[in-house]
């Protein structure tokens, strides 16, 4: 199977790939098999995508979620917000799957990576070899090969000076939300004139770290539009436990690539799903997670929208509305041992 997921063209292809992946992971990922057995799910009776069990994302914090045919010491780790917080680990057996997922998603929604200069405003992730975000941006920089590519941490002055010289070049500025806000604060306090870039695209990757939590995503995006002087304020949605990315191109609505899909589960009944437009908890199918688990129940709240399948894009459209606090996902307790 592996890289054939990137050749999915129809709903029939996607359905078949999901069922094949489920059966493979049931047989080869021990912790996932234990979870399915606890739910008394007979894999022979799972003949629809909606019948596939979704593994609670918390399992990545305390258990090895890895194909028994793979051995690897390489993993991505969630950032965590406190010293004592248990952090998720996602072991990566095949980086080529992640890299192809990165490239194809970016190409599908943004453009060819080779055409852009990539700048990173990612202070909390720099020099972190276990950050999936840093790996993604590094990979795009390598594909780009532009000499201007680089990270700027809190070096706002250097970033400002560089941006002023790039008006005729296509520039992507990746940043966690609070770092982008800090940079805009620097621009406001600067005595130098600000020259907005007509070719600048800002891609925020979430991450407020508790700051200005009362701000909605729409308000945040509007601040970025005004501050950076561009309508090209995009968003990227992924997480440590995934190897695929969804992108929002300015309307706070994400779109997933053909090998990734979002379902919305009922928060009162985690084994039932809600129709389009209703708010519930986000379940994600990520077929690039071949060697861990492709079916993950997250703690994000969201809803999906009907989207016409245009330009060969099958993945659905969805919105992320926040987090489920203090949730206790049924079926997880047996795995905490």
Order of helices and strands: HHEHEEHEHEHEHEHEEEEEEE
Uncertain ranges? 326-337
Distance between the termini: 33 Å
Q: What is the count of β-strands?
A: 14
Which bin fits the share of residues in helices?
25-40%
Quaternary structure state of the chains depicted? single chain
Secondary structure class reads: alpha/beta
Largest sheet, strands/sense/barrel: 12 strands, mixed
Number of helices: 8
Q: What form results from the Cα inertia axes?
A: globular
Calculate Rg over CA atoms: 20 Å
Number of self-contained structural domains: 2
Could you report the average pLDDT, rounded to the nearest whole number?
A: 88
How much of the residues is beta strand, in percent? 15-25%
Your description of this structure?
The protein is an alpha/beta fold. It has two domains: 2-70 and 260-335, no CATH class; 97-237, Rossmann fold, CATH 3.40.50. It is 27% helix and 20% strand. It contains eight helices and 14 strands. The strands form two sheets. Strands 1, 4, 5, 6, 7, 8, 9, 10, 11, 12, 13 and 14 form a twelve-stranded mixed beta sheet that branches. The protein has a two-stranded antiparallel ribbon with strand order 2-3. A hairpin with an 8-residue loop joins β12 and β13 (295-305). α1 (11-28) crosses α2 and α7 packs parallel to α8. The radius of gyration is 20 Å and the shape is globular.
């Amino acid at each position: 199977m592996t890289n054939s997921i990137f050749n999915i063209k129809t709903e029939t292809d996607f359905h078949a790939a999901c069922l094949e992946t489920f059966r493979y992971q049931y047989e080869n990922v021990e912790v996932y098999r234990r979870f399915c057995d606890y739910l008394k799910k007979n894999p022979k009776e799972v003949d629809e995508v909606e019948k596939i069990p979704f593994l609670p994302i918390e399992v990545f914090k305390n258990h090895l979620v890895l194909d028994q045919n793979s051995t690897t010491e390489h993993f991505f780790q969630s950032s965590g917000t406190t010293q004592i917080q248990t952090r998720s680990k996602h072991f990566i057996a095949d980086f080529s799957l992640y890299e192809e997922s990165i490239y194809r998603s970016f190409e599908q929604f943004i453009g060819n990576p080779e055409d852009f200069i990539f700048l990173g405003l990612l202070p909390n992730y720099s020099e972190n070899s276990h950050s999936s975000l840093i790996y993604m941006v590094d990979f795009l920089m390598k594909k780009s090969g532009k000499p201007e590519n680089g990270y700027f941490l809190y070096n706002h002055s250097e970033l400002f000076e560089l941006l002023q010289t790039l008006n005729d070049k296509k520039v992507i500025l990746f940043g966690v939300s609070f770092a982008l806000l800090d940079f805009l604060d620097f621009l406001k306090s600067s005595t130098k004139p600000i020259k907005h870039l007509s070719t600048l695209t800002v891609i925020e990757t979430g991450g407020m770290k508790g700051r200005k939590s009362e701000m909605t995503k729409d308000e945040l995006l509007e601040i970025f539009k005004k501050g950076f002087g561009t309508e090209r304020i995009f968003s990227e949605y992924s997480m440590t436990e995934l190897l695929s990315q969804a992108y929002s191109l300015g309307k706070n609505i994400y779109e997933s690539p053909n090998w990734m899909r979002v379902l919305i589960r009922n928060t009162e009944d985690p084994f039932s799903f809600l129709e389009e437009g209703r708010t519930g908890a986000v379940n994600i199918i990520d077929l690039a997670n071949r060697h861990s688990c492709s079916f993950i129940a997250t703690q994000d709240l969201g809803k999906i929208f009907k989207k016409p399948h245009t330009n060969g894009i099958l993945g659905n459209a969805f919105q992320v509305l926040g987090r489920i606090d203090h949730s206790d996902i049924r079926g997880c307790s047996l795995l905490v041992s």
